[in-house]
Design a protein that fits this description.
GPP34-like_sf; phosphatidylinositol-4-phosphate binding; single chain; yeast vps74-n-term truncation variant fold; two-stranded antiparallel sheet; 12 helices; 46% helix
Length: 285
């Protein structure tokens, strides 16, 4: 990837349909200044698209064959994106104070999101009784179940569908590569600036824009760190830093990712934040 030299650079403002990108913040919370800064001035990608972009090899156009974590990470991104858009939440705590992973995922709004993957997952969640928890939904959407009656929950071809969406947005292109025994459709970067800006966003959140405590991070930045960790692509996002910066960023990321999810969720009144911490708890099982 191109060496990152302009850390303050932002993409041109794109027109965003606020109805399609309705955040949970509009139903009771507020954006931080940092979140507004990034989300209003850059091409708006879903969390799943951002994670796939981080995992793709720039020129080859495919994810590492050795990364067996990105599939569940992308499904975690679907769950978090639905929560941020105000479609789902975790059942309220009771006097027994259930842990995040023991609380079921409930539907707040059935309104379509305009995103095929999100709407497909929302349909499954809505139709399932009794409700399931976050960890169960990540496994079911990934297809990690031995119960043949639950295989219909598996979301297929997620990477390819996300890649096609990124092609439509001008971030990736489509090529065919020959691997001796078979041909494979690949999606190399057509414009490296989008991935560079995404990497800068992660790096700055842990360096210049470091908030000091996990709950003070902008919501989508926190979600991105959690999902990059769950998908095993976070370290690659820090690889262009100097040794000193890398050590600092790694230390701070560990402060976030090794914190106790239930404790951190208890410090926030946001339903979306609870889901983010639940996804982290699920990735640490």
């Amino acid at each position: 990837m191109t060496t990152l030299t302009h850390r303050g650079k932002r993409a041109d403002t794109s027109t965003v349909d606020r109805n399609d990108l309705e955040d949970e913040d509009t139903q009771g919370g507020t954006h931080s200044e940092e979140e507004n800064d990034y989300d209003s001035k850059a091409l708006r990608l879903t969390l799943m698209e951002e994670i796939l972009l981080l995992g793709l090899k720039d020129k080859e156009g495919y994810t590492s064959f050795w990364n067996d974590s990105i599939s569940s990470g992308l499904r975690g991104g679907i769950i978090i994106e639905l929560a941020i858009r105000g479609r789902i939440y975790l059942e309220p705590t009771t006097m027994r104070k259930k842990s995040l992973l023991n609380r079921k995922v409930l539907v707040r709004s059935e309104a379509p999101t305009g995103d095929v993957l999100l709407d497909e997952a929302l349909k499954h969640i809505k139709a399932t009784q009794p409700p399931e928890g976050v960890a169960s939904w990540i496994q079911l959407l990934t297809g990690e179940t031995w119960n043949p009656m639950r295989m219909h929950f598996q979301m297929r071809n997620v990477r390819e569908r996300l890649a096609k969406s990124l092609v439509e947005k001008g971030v990736l292109t489509t090529e065919k590569q020959n691997f001796l025994l078979f041909d494979m459709t690949t999606h190399p970067l057509s414009n490296t600036s989008h991935k560079e800006q995404l990497v800068v966003r992660i790096q700055e959140s842990l360096l210049e824009r470091w908030a000091g405590e996990p709950q003070r991070l902008a919501r989508r930045v926190l979600a991105l760190l959690v999902l990059a960790h769950a998908s095993d692509v976070l370290d690659g996002s820090l690889s262009t830093l100097s040794d000193e910066q890398y050590e600092m960023a790694t230390t701070r990321s560990k402060a976030v990712l090794e914190s106790e999810p239930n404790t951190q969720a208890g410090k926030s009144s946001s339903p979306a934040d609870e889901v983010i911490w639940a996804v982290l708890a699920a990735s640490n099982i």
